[in-house]
Amino acid sequence: MKILKTTSTWFALVLGLFVLPAYSAVLMKPNKEAALEYKGELLSGNYNTDITHPDSLLGFPVGSRVATPKQIHSAIMTWAEQSDRLHVVEYARTHEQRPLLAVFISTPTRLAQLDEIKANIDTLSDARNVSDSKANAIINDLPAIAWMAYSIHGNETSGADAALTAIYHLIASEEQTVSDLLDDMVVVIDPMMNPDGRARFAKSLEQYRGTAPNVDDQSLLHRGDWPYGRTNHYFFDLNRDFFYLTQPETVGRVALINQWRPQLMIDGHEMGPQDTYLMGPPRQPLNQNIDPNLQKWAVTFAEDQTSAFDAKGWRYYTGEWFENWYPGYSNYAEYRGTMHILYEQSRMAEDGVRRPEGTIQTYREAVHHQFVSTMANLDTLAKHSKAMYKDYWQGRKNNVASKGKFANRTFVVLANDNKGRTDAFVDRLLAQGIEVYVTQKDMEVDEATTHLGNTLSDTVIPKGSLVIPNRQPDAPLIAAILEFDAGVNDAVLIEERQKTLRDGSSVMYDTTAWNLTMMYGLDSLTVPEHLTKNLEKYRQTPISNATPSAGIAWAVDGADDRSVAFAARLMEQGIHVRFIDKDAKYNNQTLNRGSIVVTVTDNPNHTEVAKHASQMANELGLKLVTIQNGYGKGDLPDWGGEHLPLLTKPQVAIISHGSISSYDAGATWWSIDTNLGIRHSQIDVNALSYTDLRRYNVLVLPSGRVNFSNGQLAALKAWVQNGGTLIAHDRSAAALAKEDGIGTVRTLEGAFDKALDYDIALYREYLAESEAISSSSVMAHTLDTDYRYPWADLPKPQSEEELKRRDNWLKLFMPSGAIVAGRTDQLHWLTVGTNDILPLMYSSQPLLMSDSRSQAVVRAGVYANDKAAKKTDEAKGNNSTGRWFTLPEGKTLNVRMSGLVWPEAQQRIANTAYLTRERVGKGQVILFSGQPNFRGSSRGTNRLLLNAIVYGPGLGSRYNIDL
Fold first, then answer.
1. Peptidase M14 domain: from which residue to which, for each copy (predicted)?
2. What is the model's pTM?
């Protein structure tokens, strides 16, 4: 022992002499020789020495390196003890349990009045009960309110470091200008909107930091690695979640923002490392629901902010690529009357970046840019606060005016059996202060518009439907998230088409469709009236099942999304469950297709099976039905027949890393955790060929630019053929839909050589839905010599070369994100819990082709009668699109639901398969053309994914029964 200790000590000394100095330089020093030393003065003036300088708290000069979430939190809590200008509110916790703080900064007098100020703001926000004179009195008393938020993307770090700088400056400065600013202002600083992502990126900086400065922005030091630091724990982009409200960071943040209704909200980001600095105002397209007065103020703020940059010789630009159309960014606050400004600073790690002109821009300078922008915007707000309040008040009056823009429009969600999804939808609205009502009896309206744009006359809205009048205090927000189409002016469309044709670029920064009812897959109407009669405010009625009565089985209704979790969790507990594949009725209680049943005969060793089922139903908020008689009258299924197959416990793995999209992998991971709550694994795609896949019966392959090796593909094929359920999304689905892939489904580009076969398969599906029949022909004894095959009258397909040429043209116009109408196979187990018509999110994704060897469970486009179609024999075939398919005589397709889908894109997308299912050996392959859980909010298509994961092993594959 003594010798070993001596040897260890000697080795440590040698290591210290030769290694530790360099190692210390990497991990211990602030890397102050990172590049050229920044000469600008980040903090200047006289400061209260009783307030600890951030350099002392951090252990390095603020802005010289990236402060970790722990360091930022510790600094703020220290200042909270030292300063009477600061009040800290923890408004949420992340998935990794890091606190999210809102730092309120003002004079001690103002901070003592926070509750009163907030109450006055709340009063001013609802013009239905406030007079002009009272509003003016409130405005005269209200201080300016600013919400300054930073680093919602965790690897865009300079904003949070600038936030630390700003907090210290505002609470410690003894300059008169700061005192004057705070006398009539409350500044709320949200310093670090995504601490989980920032922690991930800060860790990667430690891992890749070298002994010498690295100014190469392509290096891992600057970029990080999969899944990168941009997103939160579940890899969600939090700057797309402001009204979807899927993540705890957003839920807490939006709740507090909406309480305070700030006059100004800034959002500090970073962009490409070779860029300069972007600030408002935004360019077109602008969402037409935003108060025009805010655009006026955007110019005012930009003039002051650009002047501050000019004074320091810093380059910048306004607008250019930044538009304000999608309401899910931080500009969400604009729909509630807040002035919003985006900061985009060129991104760099601590070592700085070499610029195209040969200079090196340091990280400290980037932090300085964000800090100067912050102070410039606060100064502008101080000058114009009262005028902005007056514009705000005018906007609030317009929102509820009986002859205003939003006066006569109501959004209706039709009554349905999917209580879980409907409640979740309402929860999102109530969380944003939107008033929701429920019809107390059937209601007839003169006119209504459907998701497909069809106008209905004398329509009955059934009892129990949701009613959301647009004429409310927050009418612009309601319109933005519930109107079926977001308006866009012709000039934008012209520019977009020109850019598309010129070089394939776009003026659209993000998705062009986001309607919440479509995303949730809830049938809805827009009614051009302000509905008020026979309504009651929505109240959620929780389900609480008493001790279940004796029976032979217990069931929950399959229309509710939560029924899938009911099945999955019980199976994980070792309880056998069954699936009803058609509508059923037992003891006069109706159960929808897809309902889940637990029987006494399947679970002889579970004497308390009813108790387990009841506990699980209560946990999920589901009503538990007791079945005492398993006889189904007429054609209804009996409890011992083929319509109640036994399910198999899913054993799930998600394939991730490598070239897999972290967004889609994260959304899938989050969906399983949140909607199912069952165990599952993640597998590195690079390890597929030597992973023991026998442990799983479900593999989910999120979208990615995967290029399987022969070994990986062979492993997947063997696993599927032995009974596995392989589910793939988007580009990963395309990788499997090849000649050398798995199964017979192909992408559109790979199917032109057999266009007629796909057309015949499509026509076969159409005929299978037809109820027309000639009984005399069927019962005839004589051979019909005039019999014609269904394809006899179809036009001759274009040549493969011509189809490819046309497709290359149509491909130019694929959407950046729009909602397409899908028709679902309502006899297939994958579609339980979905409606006949299902909104589908489409973008530049692969298009799938399914023939008679596979099942097209969901296709793009809904058949409709074409009144203009000719009925003569000579006109047959004129309904052809001139592509791979032919429309039945007298029929057309409704394709676009919402967003920008050029006519060319509709031609290309129409009749392709969104969801396919194919048996391969004992297993199956399930392919999604797109990403079924888009941003965690496309609940209609996410139900398809949940069905595939939980029901696939029992309903879609063959397995051996242990005897």
1. 65-378
2. 0.93
Joined together, the tokens standing for residue 416 give 């349905």
CA quadruple 213, 218, 219, 222: dihedral, nearest 10: 70
Q: How many helices (H) and strands (E) does the chain have?
A: 28, 39
* 826 pLDDT more than 60: yes
* Strand duo 698-701 + 725-729: pairing: parallel
Residue 846, preceding bond cis, omega within 30 degrees? no
Integer angstrom CA distances of residue 242 from 251, 303, 399, 876:
8, 28, 21, 50
Amino acid at 153: H
Residue that is written with structure tokens 């490598």 in the block = 658
Give the whole-angstrom CA distance, residue 838 versus residue 819.
Answer: 10
SS3 for 371? helix
Residue 861 tokens, joined: 């486009």
Element at 917 (helix H, strand E): strand 913-920
Residue 43 has which token pair? 């903090």
The continuous run of DSSP H or E covering 271 comes out as strand 264-271
Confidence check: pLDDT of 955 > 60: yes
CA distance 370 to 62: 13
Residue 879 has pLDDT above 90, yes or no: no
Q: Report d(CA 962, CA 416) in Å as an integer.
A: 40
Nearest to 598 by CA among 620, 583, 622, 580: 580
Name the β-bridge partners of 656. 684
Alpha carbon separation from 487 to 46, 336, 396, 713, 900 (Å, rounded): 51, 18, 21, 46, 10
- Between CA 187 and CA 167 the distance in angstroms is 9
The separation between CA 777 and the C-alpha centre of its own chain, rounded to angstroms, equals 53
Coil, strand or helix at 3? helix
Does 115 have pLDDT greater than 80?
A: yes
Structural domains in the chain plus CATH codes: 42-400 (3.40.630.10), 410-537 (no CATH), 553-627 (3.30.70)
Q: In the numeric block, which tokens belong to residue 595?
A: 């309902």
Question: Nearest CA to 351 among 597, 569, 642, 29?
Answer: 29
Residue 487 pLDDT class (50, 70, 90 cuts): confident
d(CA 243, CA 248): 12
* Helix, strand, coil shares, percent, the chain, to 5: 40, 20, 45
- 8 Å CB contact between 837 and 451: yes
